[in-house]
Amino acid sequence: MKNNKMYINGCWVEAKNGKGIEVHNPATGELLGTVPMGGGTETKEAIDAADGAFKEWSQLPASARGSLLRKLYDLVMEEKEEIARIMTLEQGKPLKEAVGECIYGANFLEWYAEEAKRVYGETIPASSKEKRIMVLKQPIGVVAAVTPWNFPLAMITRKLAPALAAGCTVVLKPASQTPLTAIKFMELVEAAGFPPGVVNMVTGVSSQIGAALMEDERVKKLTFTGSTEVGKQLMKQSADTVKKVSLELGGHAPFIVFEDADIDKAVDGAVASKFRNCGQTCISSNRFYVHENILDAFLRKLVERIKDLKLGNGLVEGVEIGPLIDSNSFEKVQKHVEDALDKGGKLVYGGKGQHLGINKKGGYFMEPTVIASATGDMIIAKEETFGPIMPIISFNSEEEVIKMANNSSYGLAAYFFTQSLSRSIRVMEALEYGIIGVNDGRPSTPQAPFGGFKESGIGREGGHYGIEEFLEIKFVSIEI
User: Fold this and answer.
1) Which one, 106, 229, 355, 375, has least CB within 10 Å?
2) How much is the pLDDT for 2?
3) 3-state DSSP call for residue 466?
4) CATH number of the domain at 253-445, please?
5) Catalytic-labelled residue, pool 97, 282, 367, 461
């Protein structure tokens, strides 16, 4: 056990109330340690620090900010095995997958270390010879970054890297289930030499920390990844101080396999999309639409592919699917499976859940599960499952499947497999989603914009689009 601390204004501090939040291993239920139960007071101190550091940080040359980000990238890469081990202990994903997240997360630091130097202004032709028009881009100010438990490192770097590159200062609130990865990352922030107050981290009661962040007018920007329900509440709260918001919210991704698809490639893409992180990703495929002419072949190859997937503790060699994060997730996944079977779904593979923990704090596992003959009236066809369940729905026309795929209030990611160029163009244009994987089950990359349509969010993360979210545009008219 280790008593960890918050990081505010370059110092490691405890909560004023002396209380802590327990962190448990989701694979076993074991207590890993505690983190401070901070609240409004500590959050205000973090905002004070970020606000105090903003002027000097924002005026640093972009190359200087970029150099610090590059140094932080190097430190994360050097420590990736240790970070991954911490991540697996508190989040549950297989160790190999956790190492992959460390590399992916570090790449945002590397990308924005360079992108800091590419925040360009503009000159615009004036309407008279006596005037000159300029457009400047400047950092927005103090940023509140609220991150989820399913990607404890990558969701931090995807937000902090562009914010810092732009010249903003940050107050980070990591998820209470997975704060240890964030604390390790903050140790590297300190080691990299970021000035005090530029990056701050508070842990504790989400409602109190969130209220302090949203009520303070000095916080100019909120970047949040989490559920649509919480995102809507934060959006309402941001209205009082008119904060700029970036919201990466829930998804309900369709995965379409057309009759001309390479079935082997489609199966590989389906497995990569569905079972990564035990299905606990916002862009995980939730509805699988397979053309009726290839349904039997697809199911046969799919079962052959997933029957050897090893389920268990992510620290064990060869494990490919870890635990669900907690009992609530376990109960939700079971409910979705039971509802699908009650409504006529046919269990093709899996379906069993089990509790292997030493207490109710962890150890909830679910087999990779395939349910055929799924229909649109099932809960699993309407709601995000966040678990390793594949409902298979057959279709017989392109028009029909596009209509079914778009029949959702979510619009984050969608996938389809075909060998037709014409169909690829038609379908990618017709799908109402912010991210499209064409013959690709893993489209995420630091240099491309990540975000969704409809109730899946506002704004984009990644690429040059990501840094724009942390900049204000200033128009200057000069009469000479």
Assistant:
1) 229
2) 63
3) helix
4) 3.40.309.10
5) 282
What pLDDT is stored for residue 3 in this prediction?
Answer: 66
**Low-confidence residues of the chain, pLDDT below 50?**
1
Residues 6+ apart with CB under 8 A from 429: none
**Annotated catalytic, 248?**
yes
Contact by Cβ (8 Å): 138, 474: yes
For the question of whether the overall pTM of this predicted structure is more than 0.85, the answer is yes
Task: Name the E strands within 318-388.
Answer: 346-349, 353-355, 364-366, 369-372
Would you call 400 a catalytic residue per the annotation?
no
Distance between CA atoms of 287 and 414, rounded to whole angstroms? Answer: 10
| DSSP single-letter state for residue 437 | E
- The active-site residue, picked from 110, 115, 248, 384, is 248
CB 42 within 8 A of CB 217: no
**Tokens 């087999």 identify what position?**
367
pLDDT score of 127:
95
Is 366 exposed, middle or buried (CB count within 10 Å of its CB: 0-12, 13-18, 19+)? buried
User: What's the fold here for domain 6-249+456-479?
Assistant: Aldehyde Dehydrogenase; Chain A, domain 1 (3.40.605)
Q: Report the distance separating Cα 284 and Cα 22, nearest Å.
A: 28
**pLDDT per residue over 344-395, tens digit each?**
999 999 999 999 999 999 999 999 999 999 999 999 999 999 999 999 999 9
- β-strands 11-13, 6-8: how paired? antiparallel
Non-local (6+) Cβ contacts of 12 within 8 A are 5, 6
